[in-house]
Design brief:
five-stranded mixed sheet; Heat Shock Protein 90; extended; alpha+beta; 340 residues
Length: 340
């Protein structure tokens, strides 16, 4: 997401908020001032001004005291007429001034957060990309220089290079997803899709990763059709990210459970496990570049759960973490309204 695009988004949010504030404050000031004007105008123009003019005309210039009294009453009548308008204008101007200052301060703070977020993106991704790149270079250089002559070792080096290259591919894919989801031009392709088949498809694709990590993947999903209005590709990415998150951060021997729970009007996709609970501020798990507590730090971009939350929000779905979840340690629960 570009800096100009971020700035436009901040400006738009600030302008819409300020516009609503101006309308509300104008009504707050204008209504009571109009009521005061309605009460004071008859007194000013119905009583004081006619009385003042009568004294000036009847008394004439010779009656100096009467003329002065008439002018004073005329001035009082005009003051009573103008006073509510002046007070209302001053109050409104003061409110607007304070609100503009507050909006500007909020805008500056949001811009600072965006700058910090951008710098964090560059730093984290540079670190995550540098490690496998340097490993690939060193392994390739060793092979190229003929330092590895044993055929078994050569195959092991080549397998390591392939593994590092695949990790680079995953990191660039995640970064690409992140930038797409943050762009204003991104749109979901919403269509009715069969949620059980989508969950079963993503779970089947994750079996080999779970086995390689020494974990079991247990799937409890009825194949009875259940439609939700969603982007099939993006919703599939949510389910696959949740399963991959469990596989990546749980120890060997963990059982990962994938379930589909049907409730009145909604369906819940549940990815749970019996591994260690997540410590610390769990709300930050869904923020970009968050890797949770120390036990969960390591390989990964810190964007997986943020992408999950972002896609869920774009659909109007909800994602939450429950600890514990029944007899299991924890579960990420995606709630989807059923498509009628």
């Amino acid at each position: 997401m570009g800096e100009g695009e971020n700035g436009e988004r901040i400006e738009s949010a600030g302008s819409s908020g300020l516009g609503g504030f101006l309308v509300r404050r104008f009504l707050m000031v204008a209504v009571p001032m109009a009521a005061a004007e309605a009460l004071l105008q008859p007194l000013a123009f119905g009583t004081l001004v006619p009385l003042a003019l009568e004294r000036i005309v009847v008394g004439g210039l010779g009656d100096v005291l009467g003329a002065l009294l008439g002018l004073a009453m005329l001035a009082l009548g005009m003051v009573l007429f103008v006073l509510p308008l002046a007070v209302g204008a001053m109050l409104f101007a003061r409110m607007v001034e304070r609100r503009v200052a507050q909006v500007q301060e909020e805008r500056d703070q949001e811009r600072e957060r965006l700058y910090a977020r951008r710098n964090l993106l560059v730093t984290d991704m540079a670190h995550d990309l540098r490690t496998p790149v340097m490993s690939v270079l060193s392994l390739a250089q060793a092979l190229g220089d003929g330092l590895v002559r044993d055929a078994t070792d050569q195959r092991r080096y080549l397998a390591s290079i392939r593994s590092k290259a695949e990790r680079l591919g995953r990191l660039t894919d995640v970064l690409f997803d992140f930038t797409r989801l943050e762009s204003d031009g991104f749109r979901l392709d919403l269509r009715p899709c069969d949620l059980p088949q989508l969950v079963l498809r993503e779970a089947a694709a994750a079996y080999s990763d779970a086995e390689a990590a020494g974990m079991s993947l247990e799937v409890d999903v009825s194949e009875q059709p259940l439609e939700v209005l969603a982007d099939d590709v993006q919703l599939g990415r949510v389910v696959s990210n949740l399963i991959a998150n469990a596989v990546r951060h749980c120890p060997r021997g963990t059982a990962v459970h994938v379930r589909l729970v049907r409730r009145a009007g909604v369906a819940e996709v549940v990815v749970a496990d019996d591994g260690m609970p997540i410590a610390g501020d769990v709300d930050r798990l869904f923020e970009p570049f968050s890797r949770g507590d120390e036990a969960r730090r390591g390989e990964g971009s810190g964007l997986g759960l943020y992408i999950v939350r972002r896609i869920a929000e774009l659909h109007g779905f909800a994602i939450r973490l429950e600890q514990p979840y029944g007899s299991l340690t924890k579960a990420f629960v995606l709630t989807c309204p059923v498509w009628d």
